[in-house]
């Protein structure tokens, strides 16, 4: 009887974990993002026990002189030569009860990082809220796939 009970408990815990993981995975996909007039596509993918958001396309990837835009404002000097269409915006964000949080979002237009929280407004609209102390800004990313 103890073995049967233990087996049921283990199966129940595994089932709960699988449901939580599949709910968290609904964030995976490609999104259209518009920030200060800049249009980009951001891909969110699984990354270890969290998720990563990375720019994969820019409407205007080059400077007026034709050279590729780079992450010039990054406080990490080693990342200043990363092409703007390859910048990682969020890394290792975790899913917790309908919200993805416990990470930072990098704003390449400012060269700064902010606390981030993401949640779906509806099935295609991801609200991305960046916060610093008592100030916050929410933008919406539209899911393309």
The H-and-E topology, N to C, reads as HEEEEEEEE
Radius of gyration: 18 Å
Which architecture per CATH? Beta Barrel
Helix content: 10-25%
Output the CATH topology: Lipocalin
Structural class: alpha+beta
Strand order of the largest sheet: 1-2-3-4-5-6-7-8
Strand content: over 45%
The geometry reads as globular
Distance between the termini: 48 Å
| Strand runs, count | 8
**Count of discrete domains:** 1
Give the arrangement of secondary structure elements.
Blueprint: H1 2-24, E1 29-35, E2 38-47, E3 50-58, E4 88-96, E5 99-107, E6 112-122, E7 125-132, E8 135-143
Antiparallel strand pairs: 1-2, 1-8, 2-3, 3-4, 4-5, 5-6, 6-7, 7-8
Please provide a brief summary of the model.
This protein is α+β, with helices and mostly antiparallel strands and 145 residues long. It has one helix and eight strands, in the order H-E-E-E-E-E-E-E-E.
Describe it for me?
- With 145 residues, the protein is an alpha+beta fold.
- The protein has one domain: Beta Barrel (Lipocalin), CATH 2.40.128.520.
- It is 16% helix and 50% strand.
- It is built from 1 helix and 8 strands.
- The protein has one helix spanning 2-24, and strands spanning 29-35, 38-47, 50-58, 88-96, 99-107, 112-122, 125-132, 135-143.
- Strand 7 and strand 8 form a beta hairpin.
- The chain is globular, with a radius of gyration of 18 Å.
- It starts with a helix and ends with a strand.
């Amino acid at each position: 009887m103890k073995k049967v009970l233990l087996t049921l408990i283990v199966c129940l815990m595994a089932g709960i974990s699988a449901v939580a993981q599949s709910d968290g995975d609904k964030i995976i996909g490609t999104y259209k993002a518009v920030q200060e007039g800049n249009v980009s596509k951001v891909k969110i993918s699984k990354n270890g026990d969290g998720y990563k958001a990375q720019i994969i396309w820019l409407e205007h990837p080059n400077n007026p002189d034709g050279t590729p835009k780079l992450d010039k404002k990054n406080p990490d000097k080693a990342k200043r030569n990363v092409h703007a269409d390859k910048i990682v915006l969020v890394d290792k964000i975790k899913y917790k009860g309908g919200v993805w949080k416990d990470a930072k979002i990098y704003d390449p237009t400012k060269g700064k990082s902010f606390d981030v929280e993401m949640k779906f407004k509806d099935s295609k609209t991801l609200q991305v809220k960046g916060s610093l102390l008592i100030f916050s800004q929410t933008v919406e990313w539209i899911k393309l796939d």
